[in-house]
Specification:
- With 782 residues, the protein is mainly beta.
- Helices cover 5% and strands 55% of the residues.
- The protein contains six helices and 48 strands.
Length: 782
C-alpha cells in the first residue's frame, strides 16, 4: 500500500493529515513543493498533482519535483499518474511574512509521495486515470503491447479496438473516428501536427511504441488549440526518462527497434529511438515468387526514428523533437536500371516547445516544420513518374491562468501549407486515383490563422454540491484568405462521485484540407487538396461512465455509454472525368469539387472487467450510420459500418505466462455494384472498355470476422532487466475477409456462362484480405 514518507508543514503550525503522520518538517513559504517517486525510489515524471480536486494543478519534472501555489487553510492534495495507484494527503497551509522566509530551504523539507504500480491496469487496453482529458480515452505504450501484433506492436492497431473507432478492413490501416472519413483524423506528436505517419501502405504506424508514454483519443470534445479536424485528434506523448538511463530493445520477424532514455546533469533529458525493417531480406527466404493481385511481392523496407532533447530549469521547460519515417518499394527487376527511382515515401518533422510556469499561470509556445513526400520515377522504361510533396509549418502560443474553481486559456495558432503535385501515368488503374487526371502539375499554398479563448469553471464553491458540476465554453475564430468563421464549443461535466461521471459537449469544427477519395486497400497516400472554404461539421456527444462496480468472483468492472451525432454542412467530393472526355481537358479543371451534405450518428457501449489478479476482459459494441446525400438521394459512405464489436481477453496462466485474445466482427463494407460493362469513346472513333456503376454503395461485402491470439512470457534477471518473449497468430479463423470485387473476373464469368459455363460466383470474384499470419518477438527493458 502506498504511504506518505513525509508531510509538508508551515512555520509553528501542526500538520493535519488524513493519511499517516510522519516527521514534522518546517519551511517558510506558503506553497506546496514536493517530489513523487515509485516504489523503487525512482522519480516519476509527468505525474499530475491536483489541489482540492479543482484547477490548481502541477506536473512533475524529470526529477519528480512539483510545486503548487498555496492557499491558506486545509487542502487535499491528490497525486496520480497513469499506470499507478493515486494517493492523497491533507495539508494545512498558513501564509507567513517576508521576514520569516528561510532561503536555506532545500528538498529535505519537501512533501514526498510514493506511488505503487497498478500492474493489473496496465494489462488492459485502455487506462482510466485523472490525467485523461474530458470525455477522452487513453492507451499507453504498456497497454499497446498486450494486443496481438502484426509483427510489430502498433499504437493505431490498438486504438482500432476502442468503441467509436474503426478500420474497414485489414489492408486499410487508417482510422475512422465516430463515423468520420479517414482524412478527418488529426495526429499530433507532443503537440506538433503530423500529416501521414504510416508504414506498409497504411497498415502500420510510424512509431516505435517504446518511444511513447500515452495516446489520448479525443473524439467528442477537442481542445480549441488543436480543433482543426472534423472527427477528432490522436494526441501522442513521448515518454520522459525516469532514471539516469533506461532502454528498450525489441526484435520481431519484421523489424528491430531500440529506444534509449538518458537523464543528464542540469535537468537535461534525452530520448532517442529508431526502428528498421529487414522484411526485404527475409521475404526471399520464404518465397521467390510471392504474389499479391497477380504482381510479385517487392522487397519492401522502412525506417523511423525520434530524437528529443528536453531541459528543465527553475520554472522553464524547453524541448526539441525530430521525427522521421522513410519507406522504399522497388519494382521487381528494376532496381539496377540507370535513372530509376523506386516508390519511396515518408515524413519528417522538426519542432520545438517552450513553457514557463508561474504560481497561477502558464505560458507555452510551439513551432514546427515538416514535409511528407511520395516519389516514383520510371521514365527511363515506362514513362511513369510521381512527385507529391506536402509541406507544413505550424506555430501556436497559449497563456492560461487558474484559481481553485476556474481556469482560463487564450491563444493563437497559425498553419502554413504547401502542396506540390507532379505526376504522369499511362492508365487510371495505375494512377494515384481514378478521380485524378493521368498527367497533372500544381503548386498550391494556404495559411490558416486561429484565435481562441476557453474558460472552465466549477458551478459552486469547492466542497459544495454545485462544485460537482463543471462547465467549459469557448470560441475559436478562424481565417484563411478572405474567409472568416467562428467555431464555438460548449461542454458540461457532472461527477456525482468518484464512480459516476457524466458529460455532454457540442462543437463546430472546420477543416481546410481533404483527400481526393477515400484510400483503398494498400494505398500509399491519397492525393490531398487545399480548400479555399473549409468543410464544416457540427458535433455533439454525450458520455456516461460508471467505475468500480463490484462483480461476482472477486470482480471489478467499469462501464461506459456514449452517443454522438455529427452533421456535415459541406463535405467535398472531387468530380471524376466525364465519359468521352480527354484527360487533358479534365486536367484543366481539376480538382472540380461539389458540396455534399452528410451525417453520422451512433451509440457506443464498452466495459472493462477485472476478475481477481489473473483475468481481465474488455469489450465494446458500436451502432452507427454514416450517410451522404448525392443529387437529393442519401446513400451510405464507403466506410459506413452499422454494427461493430470487439473483445479483448487476457489471462495470466502463471506469474510469467499471459495469454491474450482479440476478436473483432463488423458488417462488410459497402460497395457500388457494376451495372454493365461498356465501351467508352475517347477520340477518332476509338473506345476503351469500362464499367457503368449501379446504385451507389447498395451492396455489402460479407461479414468481417477476425480472431488474434498471443502468448507472452515475462521474466526479470538479477541485473534488473525485464525480458518479454511473445508469440502471435493473427487471423486464426483464416477467413478470406474480402476488400473488394474483381469485376473483370466477374464479367469474364458472365461471358463464360453465355457459352454454357457456370454462372459467376461472388465468393470467387472477391479480393481477399489478410491471410493467417504468425510472428514472434523478443523485448528487453532496463
Amino acid at each position: 500500500m502506498t504511504h506518505l514518507i513525509a508531510c509538508l508543514l508551515v512555520v509553528f503550525v501542526p500538520c493535519v493529515s488524513l493519511a499517516q503522520a510522519r516527521d514534522t518538517l518546517v519551511i517558510s513559504i506558503p506553497s506546496i513543493a514536493g517530489r513523487v517517486l515509485d516504489e523503487g525510489g525512482r522519480p516519476l515524471s509527468d505525474a499530475l498533482v491536483v489541489m482540492d480536486g479543482g484547477y490548481l494543478q502541477a506536473t512533475t519534472d524529470t526529477r519528480g519535483h512539483f510545486r503548487l501555489s498555496g492557499l491558506r487553510g486545509l487542502h487535499q492534495v491528490v497525486v496520480a499518474k497513469i499506470g499507478y495507484t493515486p494517493d492523497s494527503i491533507m495539508v494545512d497551509v498558513t501564509s507567513v511574512g517576508a521576514a520569516a522566509v528561510d532561503t536555506t530551504a532545500n528538498h529535505e523539507t519537501e512533501l514526498r509521495v510514493v506511488l505503487a504500480r497498478a500492474t493489473q491496469q496496465l494489462k488492459a487496453i485502455t487506462i482510466e486515470g485523472i490525467p485523461a482529458p474530458f470525455m477522452a480515452q487513453t492507451v499507453t505504450a504498456a497497454t499497446v503491447t498486450n494486443v496481438p501484433a502484426l509483427a510489430e506492436p502498433d499504437i493505431f492497431r490498438a486504438v482500432s479496438l476502442l468503441p467509436g473507432v474503426s478500420t474497414p478492413n485489414d489492408t486499410r490501416g487508417r482510422l475512422h473516428l465516430a463515423g468520420g472519413a479517414s482524412d478527418e483524423v488529426g495526429i499530433r506528436l507532443d503537440g506538433h501536427p503530423l500529416q501521414d505517419p504510416f508504414h506498409l501502405f497504411g497498415l502500420l504506424g510510424g512509431f516505435n511504441v517504446a518511444a511513447l508514454e500515452r495516446a489520448d483519443i479525443l473524439i467528442h470534445s477537442v481542445p480549441p488549440g488543436m480543433s482543426d479536424h472534423l472527427s477528432g485528434i490522436i494526441d501522442l506523448e513521448t515518454r520522459r526518462p525516469t532514471a539516469v538511463t533506461n532502454g528498450d530493445v525489441s526484435v520481431s520477424v519484421l523489424a528491430t527497434s531500440a529506444s534509449l532514455g538518458y537523464l543528464l546533469p542540469g535537468g537535461i533529458d534525452l530520448l532517442a529511438t529508431g526502428r528498421i525493417t529487414y522484411f526485404d531480406k527475409l521475404l526471399p527466404l520464404f518465397s521467390h515468387n510471392a504474389k499479391v493481385g497477380g504482381d510479385e511481392v517487392p522487397l519492401y523496407g522502412f525506417r523511423d526514428a525520434i530524437l528529443r532533447f528536453g531541459h528543465s530549469f527553475r520554472n522553464w521547460r524547453i524541448e526539441q523533437i525530430s521525427f522521421l519515417t522513410t519507406d522504399r518499394l522497388p519494382r521487381t527487376g528494376a532496381g539496377n536500371t540507370a535513372g530509376y527511382v523506386p516508390y519511396n515515401w515518408g515524413e519528417y518533422l522538426v519542432g520545438a516547445k517552450v513553457q514557463r510556469t508561474g504560481d497561477r499561470w502558464m505560458l507555452s509556445a510551439r513551432a514546427s516544420t515538416g514535409s511528407n513526400k511520395v516519389e516514383l520515377d520510371e521514365r527511363v522504361f515506362r514513362g511513369v513518374y510521381l512527385n507529391n510533396r506536402y509541406s507544413r509549418q505550424s506555430a501556436a502560443m497559449e497563456i492560461s491562468t487558474h484559481a481553485s474553481i476556474w481556469e482560463f486559456k487564450t491563444g493563437a495558432t497559425v498553419d502554413s501549407r504547401r502542396n506540390q503535385h507532379d505526376w504522369n501515368y499511362r492508365s487510371r488503374s495505375e494512377g494515384p486515383s481514378p478521380n485524378a487526371p493521368l498527367a497533372y502539375t500544381a503548386d498550391t499554398r494556404q495559411s490558416v490563422f486561429a484565435y481562441y479563448g476557453d474558460v472552465a469553471t466549477a458551478l459552486g464553491r469547492l466542497g459544495s454540491a454545485a462544485a460537482r458540476w463543471r462547465l467549459h465554453a469557448g470560441t475559436r475564430l478562424v481565417s484563411s484568405g478572405s474567409w472568416r468563421g467562428a467555431s464555438p464549443n460548449l461542454g458540461l461535466e457532472y461527477e456525482a462521485s468518484s464512480s459516476f461521471l457524466f458529460g455532454i459537449s457540442a462543437e463546430r469544427r472546420y477543416q481546410f484540407q481533404g483527400i481526393v477519395e477515400e484510400p483503398g486497400s494498400l494505398t500509399i497516400r491519397p492525393v490531398e487538396i487545399l480548400l479555399k472554404e473549409p468543410r464544416v461539421a457540427d458535433v455533439a456527444g454525450a458520455s456516461w461512465a460508471l467505475r468500480g462496480v463490484a462483480l461476482p468472483f472477486s470482480g471489478n468492472g467499469s462501464f461506459r455509454l456514449e452517443a454522438f451525432a455529427k452533421r456535415y454542412r459541406n463535405q467535398v467530393r472531387v468530380l471524376g472525368p466525364r465519359y468521352g472526355e480527354l484527360d487533358s481537358a479534365y486536367a484543366q479543371r481539376y480538382p472540380e469539387l461539389e458540396s455534399v451534405p452528410g451525417r453520422a450518428t451512433g451509440a457506443l457501449v464498452s466495459s472493462s472487467l477485472q476478475f481477481g489478479k489473473r483475468a481481465r476482459l474488455q469489450a465494446s459494441y458500436t451502432l452507427q450510420r454514416v450517410r451522404q446525400t448525392f443529387d437529393g438521394e442519401s446513400a451510405p459512405t464507403s466506410w459506413d459500418i452499422p454494427h461493430q464489436g470487439s473483445m479483448f481477453a487476457s489471462l495470466d496462466l502463471t506469474n510469467r505466462w499471459t495469454i491474450d485474445a482479440v476478436y473483432q466482427v463488423h458488417n462488410g463494407v459497402p460497395m457500388t455494384p457494376v451495372a454493365a460493362r461498356i465501351l467508352v469513346p475517347i477520340s477518332n472513333g476509338l473506345a476503351l472498355p469500362g464499367f457503368a456503376d449501379g446504385q451507389r454503395n447498395s451492396i455489402r461485402a460479407p461479414v468481417y470476422q477476425r480472431l488474434d491470439l498471443s502468448a507472452q512470457r515475462r521474466w526479470r534477471t538479477k541485473s534488473g532487466r525485464e525480458w518479454n518473449l511473445s508469440f502471435h497468430v493473427l487471423n486464426v479463423l483464416a477467413r478470406a475477409n474480402p476488400v473488394g470485387i474483381d469485376w473483370d473476373q466477374y464479367y469474364s464469368a458472365l461471358a463464360s456462362q453465355a457459352r454454357g459455363g457456370s454462372p459467376p460466383d461472388f465468393g470467387e470474384t472477391m479480393l481477399p484480405s489478410m491471410p493467417l499470419l504468425p510472428s514472434v518477438g523478443l523485448r528487453v527493458q532496463w
